Amino acid sequence: MTTTVVEQASQRFGQLGWPTPRLEDWKYTNLAPVASREWRVAPAILPADISAVTLRDRAVAEYVYVNGVYAPELSTPNPLFVMAPSTREQHYARYADYANHPMTAMNTANAQDGAFLQIDASVNGFIHVIHYSTDGYASNPRNLFVIARGAQAAIVETYAGTGTYFTNAVTELVAGEGAVVDHYKLECESIEAFHVATMQIHQERAAAVTTRAISLGGAIVRNELNVALTGEGASVVLEGLYVLTGRQHVDNHTVVDHARPHCESLELYKGILDESARGIFDGKIIVRPGAQKTVSRQTNNNLLLSETAIADSKPTLEIFNDDVKCNHGSTIGQLDEEAMFYLRSRGVGEAEARSMLVYAFASEIVDRMKVEAVREQVRRIMFRSLPNHLPERREKER
Amino acid sequence: MLEIKNLHAGIEGKEILKGLNLTVGTGEVHAIMGPNGSGKSTLANVLAGRPKYEVISGSVTFDGKNLLELPTEERAREGVFLAMQYPVEIPGVNNIYFLKAALNSIRKHRGEEELDAIEFLQLARQKMKLVDLDEAFMNRAVNEGFSGGEKKRNEIFQMAVLDPKLAILDETDSGLDIDALRIVAEGVNALRSEKHSVLVITHYQRLLTYLVPDFVHVLANGRIVKQGGKELALELEQKGYEWIEQEMAAAQ
Fold first, then answer.
1. Contacts of residue B76 in chain A, CB cutoff 8 Å?
2. Which residue has the higher pLDDT, B238 or A75?
3. Among A86, A100, B27, B91, which is 20 to 30 Å from B57 by CA?
4. Residues 349-368 of A with CB under 8 A from B
5. pLDDT tier at B229 (50, 70, 90 boundaries)?
């Protein structure tokens, strides 16, 4: 990263400042509780217990960062994925817009370490990147994944930690012509943590990307996902699952930009909201004048498990072209009473029946995950996060 | 086994059952017949504890326990099973996972060992044959995409696995062709024993050809108005329900 980029970003953050809910893009989320705190910046590597999140034995490579600093003794890198300086120069900070997005500017100005991975040939298995944080620290994790033309890769980002801390991550993912990418962002931060993450996906001709954002932890969480379909025939699948309880707040903000013809975007976000949690889906699909034959579907379904949980859903289409097939919609509902009665009438207890239906709601997203290790991880953490409703948890406690 | 005394019940403030009395002994098969709107399904739903149905007065005793006090799942664990008229589709809930959880809840309640996956599959396979369901059904979501006949056979399959003391069939025959009807009846007949009772709720006589009842009750306007043996069902089939209604009018 060149000094100029860092300087420019720093200058821009100075001008933009922290985002406030007065900005349309930030209307649902107020970062004042984060901005008003004093955070420490890690001087060096701190000890961290990553045993709950490591997938070292199953991943082809695992990269671990603690408070934004690379931890080589916890990592199992693979020389295959080392990024050439020229590749970094070509792509770094070219997609995530630090000129207009304050949190991206903050990250670009302050990022210490991050995963810079170049995937030139298809990878059999998945690459795992862990950003782990500890109490009192702020970090700006920075990832750049460049998947070469025709290559296939699965990449998993996990965010976790302990105590109260602040993570402001930026990930840029470049899928070259015809590349096939299966990407996961697994947010299982501590329940007191603040988490902001911006994901910028750049797809060239006929590139196919699937990205899944799973939000299970954190007090205030903001997931920003921007996809630029800049090559003809590119396709993207965006899936999200947020399972929240207590007073958790998760804001999913997605923008898919159809710039070229024959591109496809299929988006499905599902929220399960219990107690006084608030889950937001604010999604926008833009179809530009030159993007004929666009196919786009945007869906957000929410399941409210309590009277005090809140779901906000704002799917938006901006279409500047009449040769397209686009639809969008959202639902907010409760557990199906008929289904509850059916399960209970067979002897299944009320709590277990609820958990079966909650799990069934999530399974549409979870069951489609191709990487088995991640699927299992998500199930395990999900069962922990809704203790009153999920059977596995209770069985463990018995 | 089941004793219903002067039961008044309804839904959304409307009284539908108006003083129903019925006693079902252990090992007996009772048929309840009646015209549409007579309260047949209300009776089935009240016995199973479906929410929104309100009991106004009267009592229901099952094996000496006050059934109306028990939540739905407790009734099932005590041995009441309702084969539903309209089984609901539950996407995402695996048929076999759900049924195993149900059976183990019941077994636990009875103080029996829970079955492990292998033992359960053995039992399930054996019972599936009874209702001629393909094994592929086990791994599908509960009732999702099943045809009407498959849903009803799935109800009988669940009944066979859960082995209830009292099975209530709520219009299980409706919409079935003759082959499916025979399969359903055979499934229920296989359960018949001196320990199991069955309450068949139906509008038509045809199921009763295969599933021969010990007693037939005619329900009209929320009350049992006539009782008899299996021949009463045939009489109803020939004469229709108007005959009962006329008799009732004459009696008043």
1. 344-347
2. A75
3. B27
4. 349-350, 352-353, 356-357, 359-361, 363-364
5. very high
A364 interaction partners in chain B (CB closer than 8 Å):
91-92
Among A395, A396, A394, A367, smallest CA distance to A379 is for A367
Cβ neighbours of B48 in A, within 8 Å: 345
By Cβ distance, the residue of A345, A350, A353 closest to B82 is A345
From residue A159, alpha-carbon distances to B164, B172, B182 in Å are 49, 52, 58
- Torsional sign, CA B135, B140, B146, B151: positive
Q: Hey, are the CB atoms on A356 and B93 less than 8 Å from each other?
A: yes
State mean pLDDT over B82-97.
94
**CB-based contact A227:A238 (threshold 8 Å):** yes
Structure tokens at A58: 């199953």
**According to the model, what pLDDT value does residue A1 have?**
54
The pLDDT assigned to A2 comes to 64
Q: Which of B48, B75, B91 sits opposite A360 (nearest CB)?
A: B91
Residue B41 structure tokens: 């399904």
Q: How much is the ipTM here?
A: 0.96
Instruction: Give the helix/strand (H/E) hosting B76.
Output: helix B72-78
On chain B, the residues whose CB falls within 8 A of the CB of A391 are 101
How far is the CA of B143 from the CAs of B91, B93, B107, B137, B158, in angstroms? 8, 9, 24, 9, 12
The helix or strand, by DSSP H or E, that contains position B3, with its residue range, turns out to be: strand B2-11
Q: Which region among A101-105, A264-268, A281-285, B181-185 has the lowest average model confidence (pLDDT)?
A: B181-185
- Count the residues in chain B: 252
Q: Residue A295's beta-bridge partner residues?
A: A264, A325
B contact residues 173-202, partner A, Cβ 8 Å cutoff: none
Give the span between the Cα atoms of A40 and A42, in whole angstroms: 6
| B55 close to B19: Cβ distance less than 8 angstroms | no
Q: Judging by beta carbons within 10 Å of its beta carbon (0-12, 13-18, 19+), is residue B212 exposed, middle or buried? A: middle
Lowest mean pLDDT, pick from A171-175, B37-41, B136-140, B149-153? B136-140
Query: What's this model's pTM, rounded to 2 decimal places?
Result: 0.88
Cross-chain Cβ contact A347/B102 below 8 Å = yes
A contact residues 199-228, partner B, Cβ 8 Å cutoff:
none
Residue type, A20: T
Residue A326 has pLDDT above 80, yes or no: yes
Could you read off the pLDDT of B111-152 as tens digits, one per residue?
999 999 999 999 999 999 988 888 888 889 999 999 999 999
Mention every residue, 6+ apart, whose C-beta is less than 8 A from residue A398.
none
Instruction: Name which of A342, A347, A349 is nearest B162 (Cβ-Cβ).
Output: A347
